[in-house]
Amino acid sequence: PDVIIEAQFDDNDTEHRQDHLQDVLTDDVKKLSLDAGEKGREIYFIFFQAKQDDEPKTNDPRLLPDKFLQRTAKVVYILEKKHSRAATGFIKLLADKNSELFKRCAMFSPVDHRVPRVYVSLADCPPDFVTRPEDYSNMLFICRIVDWKEDSNFATGQLAKSLGQAGEIEPETEGILTEYGVDFSDFPPEALECLPQSLPWVISPGEMAKRRDLR
């Protein structure tokens, strides 16, 4: 029941000709109109497309309003690297077994998809990884990115250590702390000496008197 009429006209046409065209289209719509009582509500669309082939074209963005412009920039220098360049993930063999890269590298796939996949040397992998890669399909590793060339889809890195089976609390926790650069090593003796040595330790009454109890 819907009627759609599409028309095109050139900008070279005079205003009279355009007005005449609109009148003709309006008459056509009236002729095609069906009885609303029998067919229900009818919807009509009239599209006018103006050709601008004869008008001068310009690519100068300075002539466009600001709302039509997308600001762009280019990174020229990195002042400080905030990311630890460490990631938790899995290692697997390369898909192309006939390539020279297959004999030298493995693929590291990070758990965090914001980190690129990394080529790691087979020398960093476990000794039996090439012959038994399925044994390490669920093993978490820590890899540090050392380089990422502009013309490569993958970075290059070094395997730091094996964390353990994926899904276990300790390996997963250690991986998260390593990724964010948190030092979770044991406290040195100098730091432990600052703590009370006589245990169990209790707050003295004098200290309690000058403090606010928020327990």
From TrEMBL:
Its main location: cytoplasm. It comes from the Eukaryota. The keyword Membrane does not apply. One of its GO terms (molecular function) is 3'-5'-RNA exonuclease activity. Residues 106-181 form the CSD2 domain. It is found in: Cytoplasm. Gene3D superfamilies: 2.40.50.700. GO terms for cellular component: P-body. The keyword Cytoplasm applies. One of its GO terms (biological process) is mRNA catabolic process. Pfam families: OB_Dis3 (PF17849). Signal peptide: none annotated. Keywords: Cytoplasm, Exonuclease, Hydrolase, Magnesium, Metal-binding, Nuclease, RNA-binding. InterPro entries: Dis3_CSD2 (IPR041505), NA-bd_OB-fold (IPR012340), RNR_Ribonuclease (IPR050180). This is DI3L2 exonuclease. It comes from Eubucco bourcierii (red-headed barbet). The gene is Dis3l2_0.
